[in-house]
Design a protein that fits this description.
By secondary structure, the chain is mainly alpha-helical. It has four helices and two strands. The chain has a two-stranded antiparallel ribbon with strand order 1-2. A hairpin with a 2-residue loop joins strand 1 and strand 2. The longest helix is centred in the last third of the chain and has 28 residues.
């Protein structure tokens, strides 16, 4: 039993130890976390602007870019449910961009 417990402790410790070579502070076990962090920041900024601004064209665009970054992150980590969810949310954001910005610009 203690043999299994020792293996679990070593595995859990190594899974959360930052990689010290290469990518720096945004890398855990060789996984690049830049798309994860940028997607989260863009989603927060887009949601904040959606609540504050009268014209939601810019927030919809930020949320669309955030969804694309989450899809990239999910594809790299093989999180297919996250990819599917963000593709659906991205299509809603694309519809919002069309209704608030591109549609009136193109159609007049």
């Amino acid at each position: 039993m203690s043999f299994l417990l020792g293996r679990v402790r070593r595995a859990s410790r190594s899974a959360f130890t930052p990689a010290l070579s290469g990518a720096g502070a945004f890398s855990f076990q060789g996984v690049d976390m830049r798309s994860d962090v940028s997607a989260a920041i863009l989603a927060i900024l887009g949601s904040l602007l959606m609540a504050v601004l009268a014209n939601p064209a810019v927030p919809f665009t930020l949320l669309l870019v955030s969804c694309a970054a989450w899809v990239v992150h999910g594809k790299r980590r093989r999180m297919w449910a996250l990819c599917a969810q963000m593709l659906v949310f991205g299509s809603f954001c694309l519809l919002g961009v069309w209704n608030t910005w591109l549609g009136p610009l193109v159609l007049g």
